[in-house]
Task: inverse folding
């Protein structure tokens, strides 16, 4: 049975060939779109359609036996439901007239469409929110680490400065004292020279005068 025959088979039940064709097209379109999007279309009692990913692999050409590299791909897969299997295997008998008695699909068993899209969008938003929260937490931890390291460095510098301050003060006091001593020595040296000169000058004059008098007296006696 092909698509045209399927449409003819259900045309009487749907009120005409055009209505049957539209119904078949709508059902197939919904199944294909949902399967391509990665959703699992399941009809209880009939079966399920799903997308299966096949990894890259090696296969053999059946005609030449040559080993061939097969790329990664995705394929559709249909799994028959238990009711369908029972009818095909003969466990259950097909009714002579009317519709095939498969279990009625409960509400929501046919996946795909707006409901699936909404669920996927909500799941993506939740994942995005979790990733954003994780990134924010990592950023906060990094900032906290940097702040702690900077605070430790500042504390260490302050401690070193406090320890160095007394030593610097002592060195400054010592330098000031040495400078004052040098200045005092520089001032006192000329004064000492002048005092020495003043003290020795009269004594020299007296000694010279005595020598001159003694020479004159000796000359007279001769």
Result:
């Amino acid at each position: 049975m092909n698509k045209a025959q399927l449409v003819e088979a259900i045309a009487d039940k749907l009120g005409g060939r055009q209505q049957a064709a539209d119904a078949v097209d709508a059902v197939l379109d919904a199944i294909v779109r949902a399967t391509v999007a990665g959703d699992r279309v399941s009809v209880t009692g009939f079966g399920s359609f799903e997308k299966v990913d096949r990894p890259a692999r090696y296969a053999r050409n059946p005609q030449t036996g040559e080993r061939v590299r097969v790329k990664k791909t995705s394929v559709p897969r249909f799994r028959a439901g238990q009711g369908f299997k029972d009818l095909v295997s003969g466990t259950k008998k097909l009714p002579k007239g009317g519709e095939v008695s498969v279990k009625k699909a409960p509400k929501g068993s046919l996946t795909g469409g707006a409901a699936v899209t909404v669920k996927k969008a909500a799941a993506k938003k939740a994942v995005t929110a979790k990733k954003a929260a994780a990134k924010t937490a990592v950023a906060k931890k990094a900032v906290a680490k940097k702040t702690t390291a900077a605070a430790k460095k500042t504390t260490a510098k302050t401690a070193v400065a406090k320890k160095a301050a007394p030593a610097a003060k002592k060195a400054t006091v010592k330098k000031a004292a040495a400078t004052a001593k040098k200045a005092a020595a520089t001032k006192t040296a000329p004064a000492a020279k002048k005092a020495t000169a003043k003290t020795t000058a009269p004594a020299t004059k007296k000694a010279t005068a005595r020598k001159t008098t003694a020479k004159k007296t000796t000359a007279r006696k001769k």
In short: Confidence is low (pLDDT under 50) at residues 109-119. Helices lie at 3-14, 17-36, 82-89, 114-221.
